[in-house]
Amino acid sequence: MFSLPNNATIIEVGPRDGLQNEKNAIATDVKLNFIKALQDAGISEMELTSFVSPKWVPQMADAEMIVKSTTKVGRQFVLAPNATGVERAMEASAEAIAVFVGVSNSFNKKNINKNTAEAMARLAPVVAKLKDEGKFVRACISTAFYCPYEGKMEIEDTVALCKIFASWGVDELSVADTIGMANPVESYTLFKRLKKEFPELLLTAHFHDTRKMALANIFAALQAGIDRFDTSTGGLGGCPFAKGATGNVATEDVVHMLESIGIHTGVDIDKICQAAAIVEPFLSKSIDSGQYRLFTQKQK
């Protein structure tokens, strides 16, 4: 009927994207225990933290300590929004850097007070420096499908932004349904196009689960040839600049779906749920993913 991959890579974004908008201050040692448990569960690629201004995102104020105190396992990303963040990340010996720009001008203005073209002009020398230093560069494409201010994005605008990043020599494109409005047809259509345009680049799908469509969108992306997915243990996350956006799709639910249809991830669902249990007591709301509910019921 259709071809699916034998293996898929899970990129865990809970420690950064999942926690960045958490109202409660999470202690550094709790974050480090969470990260260690995720590694023990089989996670080999992870977004650890973000080198943003602590003034704007106080939850990420311990970025240097997180990077320096985490055991190196696989590829570990840190988000750096600008030259200052990149400098801090490199001083902390980060080896893989994620930068981000939204397709939407309005989203970028709300987020970083620059339109898309201005944001890219600012990032160009930053990415060039990172590549000169031999760093792995991940480009995160926000609002690739929909914007909370402008509505539906044109596919050509998303592809055009990806083409600029590709011309800069980035290693990976992480393409995001930032507010969780995409449907499976849109997911398949965009990712099929991106696979055609960028056959040599790592392509990763990043879905939020606002309308409980993330698993369906991941399945559609699989059919389009995508085998890398950003997920967040416990479904943690949200975006301070995307009103109404809920958390990222839950790692444990994605792993369950993939493994149940014969796609190997190398990730242990029970151990992922154990990692979620480490951080849940410190969160402002309880974790409600399907696999986590089943896990906690078994513990009673």
TrEMBL record:
Lyase is among the record's keywords: yes
InterPro entries listed in its UniProt record: Aldolase_TIM, HMGL, PYR_CT
SUPFAM superfamilies: Aldolase
Keyword Metal-binding on entry: yes
Top-level taxonomic group: Bacteria
Gene Ontology molecular function, alphabetical: lyase activity
Pyruvate carboxyltransferase domain mapped to chain residues: 8-273
PROSITE patterns to which the protein is assigned, alphabetical: PYR_CT
Keywords: Lyase, Metal-binding
Pfam families given in the database record: HMGL-like (PF00682)
CDD domains named among the record's database cross-references: DRE_TIM_HMGL
Family statement: Belongs to the HMG-CoA lyase family.
Protein name as annotated: Hydroxymethylglutaryl-CoA lyase
